[in-house]
Amino acid sequence: MKNLKIQNYLNFKMFVKFIKVFPVLLFISCQQTNKKDYESVLQLLINYHLANNLPLNSGSSVSVVDIKQTSLTIYNGYCQDSFTAINGSVVISADSYFQATGGSSFPNSGVEKKATSKSSCTALGFAGGFLDTDTSQKFSYRYYTCSPSSNICSITAIKAAGYTGPFQ
Questions:
Q1: pLDDT at 150
Q2: Which of 11, 23, 93, 168 is deepest in the core (most CB within 10 A)?
Q3: Which residues fall within 8 angstroms of residue 128, CB to CB, at 6 or more apart?
Q4: Which runs of consecutive H residues, i.e. helices, occur in 52-120?
Q5: Is the separation of the CB atoms in 91 and 149 below 8 Å?
Q6: Structure pTM?
């Protein structure tokens, strides 16, 4: 009987450890799944446009801006521009990218807003930027960030995402 209690206790401890680790594993799994789906949608867009002789660079937007308001005066975000495919030989507009990645169905809220802009990321006040490339899909874009700890989000970038102010 004592061995059974010890075994039950050990099983319970293992179960508790599993419950603590499970959300982390689930989060990692979902992140990887979403990235694969995201890349598939983008590849579908490229294939559809190329198969039907449609320009991938249709639309007037140059960048995609995503800004989160973390407090009354603090914003964090990112901006993407310079979208290209097939080793840089095909230019993709921000509008096409935004549509392909589901940006138009993004539920803009008071906390986070996502939109396309006719200005480049640097014109919106984003600094730096690095080339992000998905070699398996032969797709790349420039990626910029803003946050209070590095490059503060400019009012221009915050407005481009869809916030209306007042800003301090």
A1: 84
A2: 93
A3: 144, 145, 151
A4: 94-100
A5: no
A6: 0.68
